[in-house]
Write a structure and sequence with these properties.
alpha+beta, two-stranded antiparallel sheet, BirA Bifunctional Protein, domain 2, 10 strands
Amino acid sequence: MAIYHFSVKTVARSAGRSATAAIAYRAGEKIYCEREGREHDYSRKTGVEYKEIYLPKDAPEHLKNRERLWNEVEQRETRKNSTVAREFEIAFPSELNQEQRLAMLEELCASIVDRHQVAVDACIHAPHTGSGSDERNYHAHILMSTRKLIPEGFTEKTRELDQKHSGEIEHWRKHFADICNMHLDMAGYTARVDHRSYKDQENGLEATLHEGPKVTELRRKGVVSGNGKYSTLRFFNCAQWPKFSTTYLGFAS
């Protein structure tokens, strides 16, 4: 059984985070942060299947350089509690291959850039099966600037993505589900995903508990906590229901 997952996160200084550190980890690279005066080195990280920068038309050419891009993102923010980047995290249907995953990612990223005029840096991660990750868990981290990018540089904030009532996040959840379903259909699969919550689908399923990074790390080491046990049981029980065998279940790792 495959998986639908789409989550939205932010990179905020108030949480002690930086866009340079975030992208260094996701891209598996060494990035020097000018604001912090230090280097974030994740060049030994494995499992980065693909990475690419997507920019609006006529964006400054030098921002195609990853280190330069995210340093300029950091420099544009002056407040100590600024939100410096936004992230969409997605999981790919397990039926699809590397070429199909890439096509899905490029379509989604192009749509984000076109709609919001932001800089996007996307990385596909393969599952770390040796440390306990589900072998189906091919996923992508889509990091984007919180400001629009024009030929002169970064400008106003994309506030529409901060406001729940704007409907923008729901738009992207549905848009990604549509992309998944189109590529599943093109590949000859009848299964479909649904971006709506189990409650809104009225299918009787229960959402799993989010494990969080600490619980996930314990699970990969063979230690299963209460949350991990509950989520695993709920996922297993839901997956056994034949009537829902073509519906993708929520999953985060």
